[in-house]
């Protein structure tokens, strides 16, 4: 009788990727970023790509010229890990490093960003880049009031002033108005208006950027006064010590009751 060889045994191990919910293994980050050099015009916008994969999901940090990059109204790290920059300035030129890390390891990629001024190759007959004559300052107001964030600039040609908040341009509506002098007026201020605001002045010669912070102070007051034999309803204003030591004025309803 002829003896048959036993069938060869093949072991196939299927390892699911983190995308399918497998949690039995850890994978160091892998960064998908093919572009290593970016050019963008002054006052433009650009996204430095840094999409990473790994398990657990990697956290992403950015460095510029070897220093940690701090997010601002112009520079935001997206949920994908990429860095989005708006209203680009000459100072944004440099070397950027994206680092993705998790418990299994880390990975980094380096890329360069160059901001280009279309007028660099043309002789300048004058220095007319915008200069702020009135700069915005941090402001605290109580809810429901009207507030004006002052911002004025001069230059040649006359600069156009725009406003942005949380990285998004602000457009005039029924509550928000950009005045003729460039200042920003907000009517019926609401708690949701609390934010960092950017004033951007620009013309053909360049641009200037400044920030302020607006805080809407919510005030609730109740006073009850008892007077003998008198019943009067009256509305008064009470000065309070508001946020950051700035006085706030709060309307208070006073009820005088007979005792």
Automatic annotation (TrEMBL):
Bilayer-crossing regions: 213-232
The gene coding this protein: HMCN1
SUPFAM superfamilies: Immunoglobulin
Coiled coil: none
Claim: Transmembrane is one of the keywords in the record: yes
The entry's keywords: Immunoglobulin domain, Membrane, Transmembrane, Transmembrane helix
One GO term (biological process): axon guidance
Xref: InterPro entries: Ig-like_dom, Ig-like_dom_sf, Ig-like_fold, Ig_I-set, Ig_sub, Ig_sub2, Ig_V-set
GO molecular function term, any single one: cell-cell adhesion mediator activity
Gene Ontology cellular component terms for the protein in this record: axon; plasma membrane
Protein name: Hemicentin-1
One Pfam family cited in the UniProt record for this chain: Ig_3
Domain Ig-like: 28-114, 130-203
């Amino acid at each position: 009788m002829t003896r048959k060889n036993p069938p060869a045994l093949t072991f196939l191990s299927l390892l699911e990727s983190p995308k399918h919910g497998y949690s039995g293994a850890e994978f160091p980050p892998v960064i998908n970023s093919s572009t290593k050099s970016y050019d963008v015009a002054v006052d433009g916008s650009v996204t430095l790509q840094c999409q990473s994969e790994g398990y657990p999901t990697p956290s992403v940090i950015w460095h510029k010229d070897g220093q940690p990059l701090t997010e601002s109204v112009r520079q935001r790290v997206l949920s994908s890990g990429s860095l989005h920059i708006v209203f680009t300035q000459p100072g944004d030129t440099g070397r950027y490093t994206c680092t993705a890390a998790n418990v299994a390891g880390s990975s980094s990629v380096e890329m360069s960003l160059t901001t280009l001024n279309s007028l660099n190759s043309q002789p300048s007959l004058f220095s007319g880049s915008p200069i702020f004559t009135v700069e915005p300052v941090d402001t605290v107001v109580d809810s429901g009031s009207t507030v004006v964030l002052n911002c004025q600039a001069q230059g040649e040609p006359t600069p156009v002033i725009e406003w942005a908040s949380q990285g998004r341009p602000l457009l005039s509506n029924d509550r928000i108005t950009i005045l003729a002098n460039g200042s920003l007026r907000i009517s019926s201020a609401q708690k949701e208006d609390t934010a960092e605001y950017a004033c951007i002045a620009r013309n053909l010669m360049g641009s200037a950027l400044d920030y302020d912070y607006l805080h809407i102070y919510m005030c609730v007051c109740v006073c009850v006064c008892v007077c003998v034999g008198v019943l009067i309803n009256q509305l008064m204003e009470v000065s309070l010590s508001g946020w950051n030591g700035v006085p706030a004025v709060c309307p208070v309803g006073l009820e005088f009751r007979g005792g």
